[in-house]
Amino acid sequence: MVAKRIPVDLSKAPEEQDTIHNRWHPDIPMIEMVEPGDEVMLECMDWTGGQIENNDSAADVRDVDLTKVHYLTGPIGVKGAEPGDLLVVDILDIGAFEEEQWGFNGMFAYENGGGFLTDLYPEARKSIWDFHGINASSRHVPGVSFAGIMHPGLIGCLPSRELLSEWNKREQALIDTDPDRTPPLAAPPYADTAHMGRMKSDAAREAATEAARTVPPREHGGNCDIKDLTKGSRVFFPVYVPEAGLSMGDLHFSQGDGEITFCGAIEMAGWIKIRVNLIKDGVKKYAVRNPIFQPSALQPDYKQHLIFEGISVTDSGEQRYLDAHLAYRQACVNAIEYLKQFGYTGAQAYAILGTAPVQGHISGIVDIPNACATLFLPTEIFDFDINPSTEGPKMMVSADEIPTAIWDK
Amino acid sequence: MVAKRIPVDLSKAPEEQDTIHNRWHPDIPMIEMVEPGDEVMLECMDWTGGQIENNDSAADVRDVDLTKVHYLTGPIGVKGAEPGDLLVVDILDIGAFEEEQWGFNGMFAYENGGGFLTDLYPEARKSIWDFHGINASSRHVPGVSFAGIMHPGLIGCLPSRELLSEWNKREQALIDTDPDRTPPLAAPPYADTAHMGRMKSDAAREAATEAARTVPPREHGGNCDIKDLTKGSRVFFPVYVPEAGLSMGDLHFSQGDGEITFCGAIEMAGWIKIRVNLIKDGVKKYAVRNPIFQPSALQPDYKQHLIFEGISVTDSGEQRYLDAHLAYRQACVNAIEYLKQFGYTGAQAYAILGTAPVQGHISGIVDIPNACATLFLPTEIFDFDINPSTEGPKMMVSADEIPTAIWDK
Amino acid sequence: MVAKRIPVDLSKAPEEQDTIHNRWHPDIPMIEMVEPGDEVMLECMDWTGGQIENNDSAADVRDVDLTKVHYLTGPIGVKGAEPGDLLVVDILDIGAFEEEQWGFNGMFAYENGGGFLTDLYPEARKSIWDFHGINASSRHVPGVSFAGIMHPGLIGCLPSRELLSEWNKREQALIDTDPDRTPPLAAPPYADTAHMGRMKSDAAREAATEAARTVPPREHGGNCDIKDLTKGSRVFFPVYVPEAGLSMGDLHFSQGDGEITFCGAIEMAGWIKIRVNLIKDGVKKYAVRNPIFQPSALQPDYKQHLIFEGISVTDSGEQRYLDAHLAYRQACVNAIEYLKQFGYTGAQAYAILGTAPVQGHISGIVDIPNACATLFLPTEIFDFDINPSTEGPKMMVSADEIPTAIWDK
Amino acid sequence: MVAKRIPVDLSKAPEEQDTIHNRWHPDIPMIEMVEPGDEVMLECMDWTGGQIENNDSAADVRDVDLTKVHYLTGPIGVKGAEPGDLLVVDILDIGAFEEEQWGFNGMFAYENGGGFLTDLYPEARKSIWDFHGINASSRHVPGVSFAGIMHPGLIGCLPSRELLSEWNKREQALIDTDPDRTPPLAAPPYADTAHMGRMKSDAAREAATEAARTVPPREHGGNCDIKDLTKGSRVFFPVYVPEAGLSMGDLHFSQGDGEITFCGAIEMAGWIKIRVNLIKDGVKKYAVRNPIFQPSALQPDYKQHLIFEGISVTDSGEQRYLDAHLAYRQACVNAIEYLKQFGYTGAQAYAILGTAPVQGHISGIVDIPNACATLFLPTEIFDFDINPSTEGPKMMVSADEIPTAIWDK
């Protein structure tokens, strides 16, 4: 039933493949045209284009070049699509390559952007996760195993010229408020490492100077890193250019809400099958600004959770005003400290929150001055009972048994 | 099986009842002592102590005195509880009074603190929700009905003197950064309307000058407004004073994540049954800072959702840095604009998001500069199909039919 | 919102109350008339009308008079209802009386009809279950606790004269195939203990000789004992007589699929709130023979199960042909034998299967000669881990600790 | 991570492949030895070994040779396994072959064994289902689409000589009660079409005369057709012969409880990944007679259902005694009659019940003389609303549009 298949070659550098691009620009040529109703199977490199290896050292995560990431497969052109339409994308299935049944989770070094908790965990870390059918487990993080909720971290349509211009303007304005910050406030266009797909070289060079980086989610979707865009979900994307131009990549085997480790989920190379349809003039009909979507009937259904609260007070006791970012951070820190009582290192616990299907909820957002966020940690994913009891926690995991020195001890 | 019952009298003012208090202070006397393992049934006034009426005018919401709210029933003393213990609270059941099968949802006026979207909806609004067994519906918001996820908006143990002092210090420091702000950044102690339970008058007067207001969630739980603390859940609260001193109130029939309308959930008077137990020295054993909890096996299980994304760019196009608060705001605004296409007024749609069991997820929190939040709106709660289709939305609701002029049209 | 309330008096014998009946007959007078859209709250005695006590002896279960059971509250008349309509019943809520927070589960003695496994457990047994809010636990069955899925075991409309005649004819034909069987094949009309509600005495006496007993489920619903008819569900009942005549009772706090202990669920006295509506001529429109229903959004959502298979081979090794009854029996026996390895007596395990929200599935029904049934036992309801492990089971329960001698040891 | 892969060749007849067998016998040689903890990927033919084609004629279903079916891949030997152990099988993943993204559902002709409703639907029927990622839909059954719950219809360990003898004895005894029945009561050994795997020809010929047919589920599991044995589940199989000898096949993309169409589910060729482990002496430790299993965390989670009841009264009004088989039949017939009101032919509706993830529950099994069974039909799988309403049903499907004449009209 798959009309077309767009392959990638994992043995080649992404720059050598013209079905791939790593910037957003309206002029990137379609690599394939499809009809509404068609199904397409796209192969994707992992988000770093192969920079990370299946080994026991975090050196590659530490040294990754973050301007050379998010290698997207596409853009796919849809006949009849016009700006203002909604592109209906059914995510039919996602999988790892049969011969590549593994993925990685990393925490960037502080210098490289870090992660959500980079102040606490400033060094590069890596864990390798092996896939056992629908489940993943890691030799670097023992005692835990969970069903994947596979999804594309990054998916969306090409921006129009106007939208691109707006992105560049507003993000540069933010950068200008603190241009020397480490990590930077945003990632401006950077031509040197741009891969503009099938654009001719002169045009590509020029477009690259203004083409948007792929880091943030934006109006078109993009790097939204929403774990719920899993197989079986349906997404409605705004169309900005004729023929839509849908691209995707950054496949994840699993991820927790927030992708807090930044590098981030369980990252993998693989394939994704989609079907496209159109709702003509749907943007206006439904007053759509950002993509909307319907979840899948098929998701890991963990029901037993231990839930951690966080409020918007810093570790040093400073009160912030309704800061949901901080509240979620504190919920995450609380969960990590809890898991350490069972023997996990902080970085291991952090990796669990980044990879397992944890939920991050904004529970209270109006009770001044504290936002309240909650982190739902499924307890069924552990080999042992992590619930509180009168006996207190037992040390179930020993960092000494881990086959690598990459973890903090 | 209920060992003890703590009644309230809805026909009396809360100030006249000594089983009630509306401030946090370590010296508020226990109104009842129980043993670990005991079950207690506490009756509670609605959070305003009866200021809001079941009628078609929002005048009472507009004029509410917010220093006279959060009338809590308690504190309950638990024999043997000591600072550093975890108080294990099983929330056994919650209900409305048989003769009071209704609740209210309000949006405060901007002057009164407003709600999450007070810039867009600055005027006071109210909707009355009738309970039909486990479901609620409103004559002010037609076309929608949902199963309640009843919970106490506010529950926690008395703070120690040290903790209270820390709260006052850090919140005052925040206020001092912009002391004249409307709405204020935080709510400092305010003795005039303090209800100190059974404290003797002289001591009460003095304590009231430092007793913490109940608005924000804090380390002890408090006004966390977490919809998931529903009947069947188990909560582990840090204990700060001998005998713990557990109080609760602000019962909600239902609420969406964030309680975005501020007044906020479907607020009700009613009763709550709990059972208490202790984990001795549990705070240290499990490295607990904020309460942790286990969810209930019995919750409304809506599976079909329409999910709205929001990113941290303001309505005027300003880029903010990883601002989850703003991202969730935009997801909410997107959902409201969507629902308006079916005939709802903005305030009606806003009320739905505040009352129905919507989920607010922090989906992406590391992809600089945009946080990505998602709002999960259950579609099964509507009488009509709200999913996108090629036909476009139909006007299913008419504000003209609403029996009141309180809504924006 | 409750339009009308139909009380019962638990301190009086059911025969003394005229809002109650215990037979099905078209001429039983309506005790209350309601309009479509109305809500009604009906109080109900427990199914035995108070024959069973909260104590530690099974003597009352052993001696129960089974011709004096199923005391139903009703019938309620619905204005405008005509034969051929569908009566739409929303089950809004169900509860125990505040002062009666307990229920009972019994196994009848073989002479009294026994239960599903009466050949293995021929003696009368009883367990008392205490309600702790939404959960039940029993001093007679330690180590297990679960959220109730409250429902009426018995609900339906009065039969027409023709339908009643058909019931009597076909059931008598069955009885005639083995009239002296113990237990009997069916329960024929029995006038002596009939309670015909508000029928005048002469008419009642005559009608009682043909009025249908309430034991079996039939076309109108009746004693279907479907645990899923819980609060929040909607049922569509065929209407056979003018004004429908809806009656109900036999309230259950919880029950497993099959109600295998016969007496059977956790039986309780209590109340039920319903709302009625009509689909005119719905029986024909939807080709309805038996009631159909929609489940509730609010049900205990246990996800972790241990699942037992059974096939249609008897204990003595005899092969039966696609006998789903036998297959489910064997699945139940397999589960009981499994639970005995943890220290439960057989009768205790049997009681768990009768009361807890276990699911009984007909998994395979065509693979000659064996039907395959599966019993889904939720593992989260136990205080200890009952999953298989390499260590083998541990004795977690000791019958010696049970405060009664009613159990087999 | 896959240690070993056992291929099949779909282009060859099953008889030509020695990794396949279609009978149960203790002497069938292991085709591969694995260690506890190993993962294996087995490819499987569809259950008919390729007799059914992807076309619009049911002739192949009508003419299928039922003695040449259930081609199982295996047996796999597990080092260290001994009789009395439990073989722990994790079903890691299941899939169709990339180039074979389709399956079939059939109803056998009455002469060929028919299906559950063969008296009503005596003619052969077939529907082809196309896989669109995780979902299936059919050109023969419009308006319906659902997520697959992939599982092996048939899996289990080789029987011991004693167990095989018991099977043959008890099944022959059943056949002897009505030896000329059509369809037959059971399927006795039949040497002519036996495929005994790698047994040497002389030994194979002899063993074939006593080797058990694969049709029924038995103590070892076998053809249990339990839809819940899906990817992510864990099964505990009794071991009867040294090295266990685990075989499997009859892969289903999806199936409803009961597999009522007999041929049956959505049948497919494909592959299955498993991991094996042992619980030594587990049969005795846990008192295991039939396999037990734990379900997957990843299953289609349809929540909205329309539920049909059935009782044990025949279509002609004859009363049967607690006959769960008949009660489930009536629930199925009721659902089919209901679906016909929307335009489906009876055979189409029947095919939906056989293929979609419907649940069949034994709801009441003790209320003499009627068993009560319920069929849960998920309503979300239909493109249109099938719930009852005051307007009545609309004809949404037209048999005239179906590209084949195989359906009854």
The coarse silhouette of chain A is globular
Mean pLDDT of chain A: 94
The CATH topology of the largest domain in chain A is given as: Jelly Rolls
**CATH C-level name of the largest domain in chain A:** Mainly Beta
Number of strands of chain A: 22
How does the major sheet of chain A shape up? 12 strands, mixed
Helix proportion range of chain A = 10-25%
Q: Structural class of the helices, strands and pairings of chain A? A: alpha+beta
Kindly provide the radius of gyration of chain A, computed on alpha-carbon positions and rounded to a whole number of angstroms: 21 Å
Low-confidence parts of chain A: none
Intertermini distance of chain A: 51 Å
Oligomer: homotetramer
CATH architecture descriptor name of the largest domain in chain A:
Sandwich
Number of domains of chain A: 2
Structure notes:
Chains A, B, C, D: Its EC number is 3.5.1.49. The structure is a homotetramer of 409-residue chains. With 409 residues, chain A is of the alpha+beta class. Chain A has two domains: 4-294, Jelly Rolls; 305-401, Endonuclease I-creI, CATH 3.10.28. Chain A is 14% helix and 31% strand. Chain A contains six helices and 22 strands. Chain A has helices spanning 59-62, 161-175, 201-208, 282-285, 324-340, 346-355, and strands at 4-6, 20-21, 32-34, 39-44, 72-78, 86-96, 102-107, 125-132, 135-138, 141-147, 151-157, 217-218, 221-222, 234-238, 244-254, 262-267, 270-279, 292-294, 298-300, 305-311, 359-364, 372-378. In chain A, the strands form three sheets. In chain A, strands 2, 3, 5, 7, 8, 9, 10, 11, 12, 13, 15 and 16 form a twelve-stranded mixed β-sheet that branches. Chain A has a six-stranded mixed β-sheet with strand order 1-4-17-6-14-18, with no helix packed on it. Chain A has a three-stranded antiparallel β-sheet with strand order 20-22-21. In chain A, 64% of the residues are buried. The model of chain A has no long low-confidence stretch (mean pLDDT 94). Chains in contact: A-B, A-C, A-D, B-C, B-D, C-D. Chains A and B meet through helix 2, strand 12, strand 18, strand 20 and helix 5 of A and helix 2, strand 12, strand 18, strand 20 and helix 5 of B. Strand 20 of chain A pairs antiparallel with strand 18 (292-294) of chain B, so a sheet runs across the interface.
